[in-house]
Design a protein that fits this description.
90 residues, alpha+beta, Ubiquitin-like (UB roll), 5-stranded mixed β-sheet, 3 helices, 28% helix, globular, Beta-grasp_dom_sf, Molybdopterin synthase sulfur carrier subunit, SAMP1_3, ThiS/MoaD-like
């Protein structure tokens, strides 16, 4: 499956996108990515066993918070996008 990374997550990983073998759930996928990209990435996406408030995960354009969160099931042809939460503006 294709995983796209945005903003400073690209700095943490050194890639804009990566192909990952099949993972059954978003949780499994994120843990796989943590194994690839290391502790700094893991601290950004997880808060203990939960998704951190610093990242937004979309599966085929849908926020996982509106699906089954980390237990959202994935298919081989899904596209996952990871965005950092950005604050600011007026």
């Amino acid at each position: 499956m294709k995983v796209k990374l945005f903003a400073y997550l690209r700095d943490y990983t050194g890639v804009k996108e990566i192909e990952v073998g099949h993972c059954r759930t978003v949780r499994q996928l994120l843990k796989e990515l943590c194994g690839i990209f290391g502790k700094k990435f893991a601290r950004e996406v997880f808060d203990g066993e939960n998704l951190s408030g610093r990242v937004i995960v979309l599966v085929n354009g849908m926020n996982i918070l509106h699906l089954e969160n980390l237990d959202t099931e994935l298919k081989e042809d899904d596209e996952i996008s990871l965005f950092p939460v950005v604050a600011g503006g007026r």
